[in-house]
C-alpha cells in the first residue's frame, strides 16, 4: 500500500517479495468489460511516479463517505447510551424532528433505525467490506 494518509494505491504482490531489491511491475488486463475500473489504479500509479505526489483529480470523493461518517457517529452515540431521539436531534436538529412529528411522519425515526442497524453491522465486521471497495 502506498499512501499519503488520505489517498492510497494498493499493489498486490503475486510472486516474490519486495524485500529483495528492485521489482518489475506487471499489470494484468483481460477483456474490455473490466478495463475501465482497472485502468484507474494504473493511472494513479503513473501520475504518482510522474509527479511524485498523489494527483487529487484521480481520487474523487466516495459518494458513500457521508453515510459511513453518519454510521460512525451513530455507533459512537449508541455505545454511549444515546436514545434514538437523542441521535435524531444531533443528526437532524430539533426543528426538523418537530416538523416530522407535526406531519405525523416516521421518516426520521426510520432513518435513525437504519443507521443504527448499519452501524452495528459495521462494528460487527462489515467494516472489512469498506476496505475492499477502493483500490
Characterize this entry briefly.
The chain has five helices and two strands, in the order ββααααα. The chain has helices at 35-51, 65-79, 84-92, 94-102, 107-133, and strands at residues 2-3, 8-9. α2 packs across α5 (107-133) and α3 packs across α5 (107-133).
Q: What is the element layout, followed by pairings?
A:
Elements: E1 2-3, E2 8-9, H1 35-51, H2 65-79, H3 84-92, H4 94-102, H5 107-133
Antiparallel strand pairs: 1-2
Would you kindly provide a written description of the structure presented here, covering whatever features stand out?
The protein is mainly α. It is 57% helix and 3% strand. It folds into 2 domains: 57 residues, no CATH class; 69 residues, no CATH class. It has a two-stranded antiparallel sheet with strand order 1-2. The radius of gyration is 21 Å and the shape is elongated. It starts with a strand and ends with a helix.
